[in-house]
Amino acid sequence: MELLLVRHALPLRVERKDGAPADPPLSNEGRRQANRLARWLEAARLDAIYVSPMQRALETAQPLAKSQGVGLRIEPGVVEFDATASTYVPLEEIKALDYERWRALIRGGLVEGVDLAEFRRVVTGSLERIIDDHPGERVAVVCHGGVINTWAAHVLGLEATLFFEPTYTSISRFLASASGPRSVASLNETAHLSGGR
Fold first, then answer.
1. Are 80 and 146 in contact (CB under 8 A)?
2. pLDDT over 70 for what percent of the chain?
3. Are 88 and 24 in contact (CB under 8 A)?
4. If both were cysteines, with which of 16, 21, 127, 131 could 176 make a disulfide (CB 3.0 to 4.6 Å apart)?
5. CATH number for position 17
């Protein structure tokens, strides 16, 4: 089967003072990205679309589901590790404003207080279950950068859980054989964002 992991589109920056989860919606640019993604994948037959329950992932997946005529399946196991954080600042914004802070986050500061081994166990278990449920099919999972990193690291046999920065609405493709082998077909496809479609 073919597994497409799609990072959500660009969300708004949210900094809540009440301690509630930030869970930001998409920005205007994020909505444009989500629509470009849906147009780009129009010709692809998706047998199922799974989505993280976080707002930025749900809003990204909606145009794709409409275009494909496929219902969304909520998958809590692909929620991002920052799901309960009261602040969400897009990494690209941090990178532009404070490059050194961005480098520190990428090197591991992102995951302070997070049990990465448990996160990896939940993500890989959830994606393996999706694979088992869809032999021979093409399935998209709209999720988060940490989830994509975790699965790619698992497939590649890397110890590092976070090793690259998926672009908003990028597509990473994986192949999963019924006999067990998993492989990477592509990472971070972004042709749909170039403005051609």
1. yes
2. 93
3. yes
4. 131
5. 3.40.50.1240
